[in-house]
Design a protein that fits this description.
The chain has eleven helices and six strands. The chain is mainly alpha-helical and 217 residues long. It has one domain. It has a three-stranded antiparallel beta sheet with strand order 1-3-2. A hairpin with an 8-residue loop joins strand 5 and strand 6.
Length: 217
């Protein structure tokens, strides 16, 4: 294949040349997961791949939970759909925990602390509530768990990876957390082989032409 044709095909599969998508969730579903550490930049990445999508449309979709943001695939936030969050977390959460292991040890975070933290967070959010990170830090401190700075971030990441919390609706410019079971009650669960096949197919369909090395990265 000529280089020009390869690039054109990749642009087409990325939906950067033309797109039939009109909703943020359509784009995220097609791509599988979209890196979203920078919220504004991630919105722009989706907007490039959809027809007529406005900034307000995107914020509304995020607040309503048709797209979610969580730590998944690697130690960074990604957008993912409610339908995909459960099987994708199940496939990748151990790998992300392993990448975070040094931080966990440095801040004396072990299985017992994580269990207590997740329990306190879940109790606070149950019933459709949403809380900012600062509010959840107060909840954890009342439960006797030191929670600030990087240690707090690690506690939040653990709760995300374990499928307890995910993004909630924004409050102005602030982000909140809510329970996965309440934001994505109908998320699919599949076995590992099916999950690997689904992720592989999704990647090469939306990002190809690509190599196995690209996919592994």
């Amino acid at each position: 294949m000529k280089e020009r044709d390869l690039v054109r095909r990749r642009l087409t599969n990325h939906r950067l040349e033309r797109s039939e998508f009109r909703k943020p969730a359509d784009v995220v579903q097609w791509l599988g997961a979209v890196q979203a550490q920078d919220y504004a930049g991630a919105k722009w990445a989706l907007g490039l791949r959809a027809k007529g999508l406005t900034d307000a449309d995107f914020d509304r979709a995020f607040d309503e939970g048709t797209i979610l943001r969580t730590h998944i695939l690697r130690p960074t936030w990604h957008f993912v759909t409610p339908a995909d969050i459960r099987w994708m977390l199940a496939l990748t959460f151990r790998r992300v925990h392993a990448a975070n292991a040094h931080t966990y040890r440095e801040f004396e975070l072990n299985a017992s602390v994580f269990r207590r933290s997740r329990k306190a967070i879940e109790r606070e959010l149950r019933g459709g509530k949403d809380r900012t990170r600062a509010e959840l830090a107060s909840v954890l401190r009342r439960a006797g768990i030191a929670a600030k700075g990087i240690r707090l971030a690690a506690l939040m990441i653990d709760a995300e990876l374990e499928g307890v919390i995910v993004s909630g609706p924004r409050r102005g410019t602030q982000f909140t957390y809510a329970l996965v079971e309440e934001r994505a009650p109908r998320g699919r669960t599949v076995d590992r082989e099916e999950a690997l096949a689904e992720l592989t197919t999704r990647y090469f369909s939306s990002h190809g032409p690509a190599t196995l090395r690209d996919y592994a990265w």
